[in-house]
Amino acid sequence: MIKTVGLGAFALTFGCSADGQKAPAGGGAYVLPKLPYAYDALAPGIDEGVLRIHHTKHHAGYVKGLKTTLQKLEAARTSGDMSQIKALSRALAFHGSGHVLHSLYWTSMTPGGSSAPGGALGTMIARDFGSFDAFKTQFLAASKKVEGSGWGVLAYEPMGGKLVVLQAEKHQNLAIWGVTPLMVCDVWEHAYYDQYQNRRADYVDAFFKLVDWPGVAKRLATVVG
Ligand code: MN3
Predict the structure, then answer these.
(1) How far is the CA of 74 from the centre of ligand 1 (A)?
(2) Mind listing the pLDDT tens digit for each residue in 35-47?
(3) Maximal C-alpha separation, the chain
(4) Is 183 left (phi over 0), alpha (psi -120 to 50) or beta?
(5) Cα 81 to averaged position of ligand 1 atoms, centre (Å)
(6) Cis status of the peptide bond prior to 214, with omega within 30 of 0
(7) I need a labelling partner for 111 at 20 to 30 A (CA). Which of 17, 68, 80, 223 fits?
């Protein structure tokens, strides 16, 4: 049975195909997803120009980098030349994680934002962080204090069956293996500098007001059943 969960234009398909394989979340290909809103729809929190360049240049660059890296790895296997394996493995994690996180970043936001979550998501946040306000304090602090370029991440950790807040450095560092990211805040300078200059904290506060909590709740439902 195929169940499609619409996350704006970034539709994720879950379920099993005829051979029992779970359908890939990205549709089986690495492509730049369309934004689920217009480039000017998040203003004034995030300006049109910032969003347009971020999506069409930066995210597109990670998609291209991921595909190029996979091609180089295939060539290395064909030739048997593994001399570049260290750099290629790093590039695979970097561009692959960049593509995953940016795809999620666009759908972490919705024009006008949304109110704090209730339902199963609200209950889990209260259970795992103490309260929504306590979660918010931790998420904002984590996002604002990433060292260098990186991300603030709300994720579901399946071993403990709980929600966690992570900082990611670059795209691929400081994760727990196996988590499912549910909501992410990009704090690379390219995400805000043209609008906020060095005021990363102001950008993070603006991002948080744009979070699409119903969308986050849908993502959680796909991993906790
Ligand atoms: Mn970015």
Answers:
(1) 27
(2) 999 999 999 999 9
(3) 55
(4) beta
(5) 33
(6) no
(7) 223
Do 156 and 182 form a contact (C-beta atoms < 8 A)?
yes
For the chain, what is the total number of helices (H) and then of strands (E)? Answer: 8, 5
Domain spanning 181-225: CATH 3.55.40.20:
yes
- Gyration radius of the chain over CA positions: 18
The residue type of 73 is L
What local confidence, expressed as pLDDT, does residue 34 receive? 96
Sites in the chain below the pLDDT cut of 50: 1-16
Distance CA 103, CA 168 (A): 15
Sign of CA dihedral 150, 151, 156, 157: positive
The pLDDT of residue 1 is 35
Q: Are 30 and 66 in contact (CB under 8 A)?
A: yes
Domain spans of the chain? 2-180, 181-225
Cα separation, 70 vs 119, whole angstroms: 40
Closest by CA to 37, choosing from 8, 66, 67, is 8
Question: 196 is written with which tokens?
Answer: 């906020």
* Angstrom distance (rounded) from CA 186 to CA 119: 26
Which residues fall within 8 angstroms of residue 43, CB to CB, at 6 or more apart?
none
- Distance from the alpha carbon of residue 19 to the mean position of ligand 1, in angstroms: 36
Nearest alpha-carbon partner for 101 in 157, 160, 166: 166
Q: Which amino acid is at 145?
A: K
What residues are neighbours of ligand 1 (ion), with CB under 5 Å?
58, 186, 188, 191
